[in-house]
Structure formats: C-alpha cells, structure tokens
C-alpha cells in the first residue's frame, strides 16, 4: 500500500498514512507538509524511486518527536 501511495505525484497522502499508523496522527499538519515537500524532491518514475520515497517518509516520521514520545 505504501508503494502505491509513493507512486502518486504528491507525497502528502503517503506521509499522512505513515503518521496515522506510526504516530497515531499526532504530527502537526505544518510538519506533515514540510515532510511531504522534502519527499517530493525524490523522483518516483520507477520502482526504485518509489521505494526511496517510502524509505525517506518512514525515516522522517520515525525521527519526529511525535513518534518518539507518544502521548
């Protein structure tokens, strides 16, 4: 499912899905938008690029304070 989201033009939905699953949706919208902008810089024209987008999105969410400290 994440690879399918990574194949879309924008990565907002990808970040939102990972935020929901890993951080219980606690990451603020502004930070989600910043993460999506960073992931959008990675080309997604082939499967390798899509995997790179998923890996970057996961890394950004896991590094966020909202993931590390769940309330």
Poorly predicted ranges: none
Number of distinct helices: 5
Helix content: 55-70%
Morphology call: elongated
Strand tally? 0
Give a brief outline of the structure.
This protein is mainly alpha-helical and 71 residues long. It is built from 5 helices and no strands.
Describe this entry's structure for a reader.
With 71 residues, the chain is mainly α. 69% of the residues lie in helices and 0% in strands. It contains 5 helices and no strands. The protein has helices at residues 2-6, 12-23, 29-40, 47-62, 65-68. Helix 2 crosses helix 3 (29-40) and helix 2 (12-23) packs across helix 4 (47-62). It is elongated. The model has no long low-confidence stretch (mean pLDDT 94).
């Amino acid at each position: 499912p994440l690879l399918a989201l990574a194949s879309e033009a924008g990565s907002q939905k990808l970040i939102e899905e990972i935020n929901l699953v890993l951080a219980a949706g606690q990451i603020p919208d502004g930070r989600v938008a910043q993460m999506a902008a960073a992931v959008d810089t990675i080309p997604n024209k082939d499967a390798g690029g899509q995997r790179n987008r998923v890996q970057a999105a996961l890394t950004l969410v896991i590094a966020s304070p909202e993931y590390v400290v769940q309330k």
